[in-house]
């Protein structure tokens, strides 16, 4: 009767659909059904905790917080088949959000004890609830929410909520730059420590000396121990501000391959973090994955990497990572893997005939790789004149490219596309000549992704100089800007005449939508164009937008940041889901599988892009440059 | 068996069964000042052979409990009176009794008895509830000479009263439906009765209509059960 209807309904509600029919039947015995007219407050922030899990049968609610300044911060909009009240039900102390009916809303209410019982007996459902708190990335405050939740239940410190200042323990020992090496060594021996921070008389840190410097720079080089310690200190210092989160610190340590990082408060030395400090974050698999990749010695061992990525990303989401944290980590790991492959290659094939720089461009350059990877690389090598050397160079890099392509393919990290193409291996001056031709019309091999090129191995300057050249050219050439605008406008946002989604009409991805090509890439393109216009040098889309917003008062940037975050979150979740189902994560999503609010947000993001396009079309594209 | 026939034939106050006995002093337990949201309600509906108060009878009863305005979907009641019995039951009233008819009468009384037990002390809710009350009470009258004592309220009356007295209500629901039958109202107020159309789904719709109307009551000064019964009298 009624129960069967409710069970049928729950069978379409994530994650209740994971429960057996019997469990659902039991659960329904204690259920109630409530009606809230539009505008009624269901839960009050800081009010009593929810005594039930609300599952929306019809209508919709808004979950929001009121800030100290009385500003309303929307955490989420939930509609049919979605739930609310879980957080305060679990914490049991108070409601963290306001929940208000924004339509006439009917919901089923499952009492607290029933929910807790089900969670206990069904770990997969438990997992989902934990995860789903981090799903909605539009929420500015959800980090706080998540902290409150995890703080209450597991007591585990977490990478994203914990600021560096919260885990930095003691101030490191310092030493003045003119003290002798011997004195410094004595100091370290007395305190039984392995490093010293060199500071000036005002206490501002200048550099660092570690055990290794004594081995490599003093003993191995037979240096006079009466020399001042500044002669052997490491500069520049890799530092992190105490207000940053621990994930950022970890990322910076991975990036610079260091084991210590100095923590600054303003300019003042606050303390030091070491690898060991991160051991405190038990079981956070990103650290483990980084370690594992670091230990890989043969390409064969890389084969099983992709599933580990999925695991790491899934765990990151659970730890409260934002989309840019995740794409940042994926990119760092891809860099590490690429470097490992090249290390292995160099060991087997010897050093290159000429120095070169390996770089990422496109998403990799922007630190924006997702689980579909699709990393794109290129090589800039020192110009060669002699034909004999040129032949050697060509052979060497051809082999390197083949090795990179086949290894990435083998570990499912690039899909069918080659990560490095022959045409993207050039001498510095050839690159420059090519960039010079850009803007003179179609067919010049223009790829806006090169504006985002970033060195990952070798002398960084080779790539930085090229990029600077390219950006300068765009700044001075109206024609090139118009051409770039035309390139960007090519992919229209997938909104139809009636503002519905335009999906693929046939083929493998019938009725699906390429979220990257149609959603993320247009936003990236717009941010890039505006950035170029204003001379913003940042690589990442978010970096560009933040700078546009803060330095240039570009108001729409805030909206773009939100939309960009949302689209990436949606894509990563969909990719994880694809991976969980045993497929290779791609960029397609099915709009029909989204909830009505997700669809609404998606549409709004596309409409934002459509408005940006109109703006760009009006400003840049004179119509002279054929798309 | 003879004493039972006597009951059917209407000897007043023959020994009442426990469930009916308990009914009779309900008034003593009844607290008119209790707030609406702490009151137990049962929304119910009956399916009838027709609307002739004298000749027709109940085919089925459906009901669902509410605590305040919260529907309790697991606390439901739905029973059919055997169809062949129901037809012959008409003759019970008008004509002589036969052995099989007795069984059927028992069947009807059994269903109504279970319903009365299900209802307990709750306040009844129905749409045009006087009709349902009549058909539930009639067999009780015939058999025991007593009727159902539970207070009852009518969603159709409540609706009209709200429409007259609360401009917000009219605005919220963009005017009143011209038709006041259950289905027109359900449609008007976006109430979903489920797949089946029977006494139970109608009771469920009635419960939801009550749920829709109730939020407007406090601002109209209707907070206690007494006040509610006054404005939603059948």
The CATH topology of chain B turns out to be: Nucleotidyltransferase, domain 5
- Structural category of chain B is alpha/beta
**H/E topology pattern of chain B:** HHHEEEHHEHEHHHHH
* Top-tier CATH class of the largest domain in chain A: Alpha Beta
Mass-distribution shape of chain A: globular
State the name of the first-level CATH class of chain B. Alpha Beta
- Counting DSSP H or I runs of 4 or more residues, the number of helices of chain A is 22
Could you say how many structural domains of chain B there are in total? 1
Helix content of chain B: 40-55%
Mean pLDDT of chain B: 80
Describe, in short, the structure shown.
The complex is a heterodimer of chains A (627) and B (234). Chain A folds into four domains: 2-153, Jelly Rolls (Sandwich), CATH 2.60.120; 164-279, CBS-domain; 285-475, Beta Polymerase, domain 2, CATH 3.30.460; 488-619, Four Helix Bundle (Hemerythrin (Met), subunit A), CATH 1.20.120.
In words, what does this structure look like?
The complex is a heterodimer of chains A (627) and B (234). Chain A has 627 residues and is of the alpha+beta class. Chain A folds into four domains: 2-153, Jelly Rolls (Sandwich), CATH 2.60.120.10; 164-279, CBS-domain (Roll); 285-475, Beta Polymerase, domain 2 (2-Layer Sandwich), CATH 3.30.460.10; 488-619, Four Helix Bundle (Hemerythrin (Met), subunit A) (Up-down Bundle), CATH 1.20.120. Helix content of chain A is 46%, strand content 16%. In chain A, helix 10 (246-256) runs parallel beside helix 14 and helix 12 (285-295) runs antiparallel to helix 13 (305-318). The radius of gyration of chain A is 27 Å and the shape is globular. By secondary structure, chain B is an alpha/beta fold. Chain B has one domain (35-231): Nucleotidyltransferase, domain 5 (2-Layer Sandwich). In chain B, strands 3-2-1-4-5 form a five-stranded mixed beta sheet, with helices on both faces. In chain B, helix 4 crosses helix 5. The radius of gyration of chain B is 18 Å and the shape is globular. Mean pLDDT of chain B is 80; it is low at 91-99. The A-B interface holds A 1-3, 5-6, 28-38, 40, 58, 104, 106, 108-109 and B 64, 67, 69-74, 76, 78, 172, 190, 192, 194-196, 200, 204, 208, 211-212, 215.
